[in-house]
Design the sequence.
């Protein structure tokens, strides 16, 4: 199992969610976050206004999924989140040791 953490522009969330549903992922967690990248937030525009603060609003998507879906999911996120402008975000992939569905005690891939 792997975990994908994707930081994206908030207005792209619906597109990304739809693209991920087509891949067949079973669940996701979405959090409103703030962050900055190489430009330190200074030159980015959000909803028409230029932000002068360091932290810009972003959305973080977390998905735990079986190894064989990772490449498809990463491509789906990248394509659907891309505007080609700075601040489009990042995708991080890490290993997950265990998962458990609380209701049934299923573990591993069965719990996803
Ligand atoms: N190294 C990092 N670690 C953790 N989060 C990061 C990292 N880089 C970027 N982020 C998160 O992703 C968001 C978007 O980053 P961003 O796309 O601006 O990266 P960038 O490296 O500056 O690329 P670009 O030049 O395309 O803007 C940031 O606001 C922050 O929340
Ligand atoms: Mg940036």
Sequence:
């Amino acid at each position: 199992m792997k975990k994908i953490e994707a930081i994206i522009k908030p207005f792209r969330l619906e597109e990304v969610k739809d693209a991920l549903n087509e891949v067949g992922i079973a669940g996701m967690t979405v959090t409103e976050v703030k962050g900055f990248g190489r430009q330190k937030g200074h030159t980015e525009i959000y909803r028409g206004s230029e932000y002068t603060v360091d932290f810009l609003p972003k959305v973080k998507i977390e998905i735990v999924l079986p190894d064989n879906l990772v490449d498809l999911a990463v491509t789906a996120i990248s394509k659907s989140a891309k505007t080609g402008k700075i601040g489009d975000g990042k995708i991080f992939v890490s290993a997950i040791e265990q998962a458990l569905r609380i209701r049934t005690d299923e573990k591993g891939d069965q719990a996803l």
User: Anything to note?
Assistant: Residues 37-39, 86-87 surround magnesium ion (ligand 2) (CB under 6 Å). The two ends are 9 Å apart (CA to CA). The CA atoms of residues 67 and 103 lie 23 Å apart.
